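User: Here's a chain of 373 residues. Predict its fold as tokens.
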Amino acid sequence: MLKARGTWHEARGKNIQQRMRIMAYNRNPKGPKTSNYSKPSRPGRPGKPGKPGKPGKFEKRNDGGFVKEEGRYSKGPTKGRSSGKPYDKAKPFEKGKPFEKNAPYRGSRLKEQYKTDNKREDDVDDDNINLIEGRNPVIEALKSGREIDKIFVQKGVGEGSIRQIIAIAREKKILIKEVDKAKLDGLSSTRNHQGVIASAALYKYYEVDDILKAAREKGEDPFIVILDEITDNNNLGSILRTADAAGVHGIIIPQRRAVGLTPAVAKISSGAIEYVPVAKVTNLNHTIEYLKKEGLWIAGAEMGGEAYHGKDMTGPIALVIGSEGEGLGRLIRENCDFLVSIPMKGKISSLNAAVSAAIILFEIQKQREAKKV
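Assistant: Prediction complete.
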């Protein structure tokens, strides 16, 4: 019994020494490294060399390193290097690209690309079309004769104005596609498509001369609205709707720092975008000077001006509306012929840009109608 116990202890000690050698080799394969936990051999009893063919046995190289022997448990040389050669950590991994610590993370870009690919169909190209969302905007676009490629209608929705849209589209031989609500939600940018979206040509921007020509063809004095840095879709859409109702011949917006004709603006305008010409210019001050040469008076809506209802605005006129936060720019204000304001009785000192425009525009329209009588 004692002999068996001693044999077991000797075998266990050899296993521990063998494990320590493997650990030392893994930490430094190029050279020997004595572990602090290796058990020294007893004097007079040197460790017996391991038998060839057993797994985990190493031979000492000339440079001080160790090489694993191949035996009956060895699987042969590792793919990519021959047996007997240590693994070179300095050699880069050949199959993959080396890791770059400062490389930008592209996961979000791939995610956005996936969303974009699944958001629109292949036959709906944002570079060539514009999406008209909502029942009234689509109806007005059909009535105005605007070029429409196809109309997406939600399945199971065929009552009311949707039926009218389908009838007009069939009369004009426009392709109608019935799709699920999820598809319309993916196409929509306003999240308020009301069960119908039309894909049409991009909104056309006009020239200032086109607006003046349209007024002359009607035999009327030019009636124009100039917007100075209006950046909100709701304001532009509302002003377009009011301008159509008040008989405005056109709207002028700057090319920079201002919202343009977008699907959201078209939705808010309820189709007025199809009837009111919009011109985009690079410099508002130069445009104002040009309008003055054409015989127009320039009125600026600004706090501190004269009361709007007491000013004669019956002739050729252009009304300038500034942004809500900044109002009219200094150069624009100085370039106006006169300033008008809306008297305020409450605690709030200003109104929304679209509301202010509506009040003054209908005052101008009232004065122009009274002059005809």
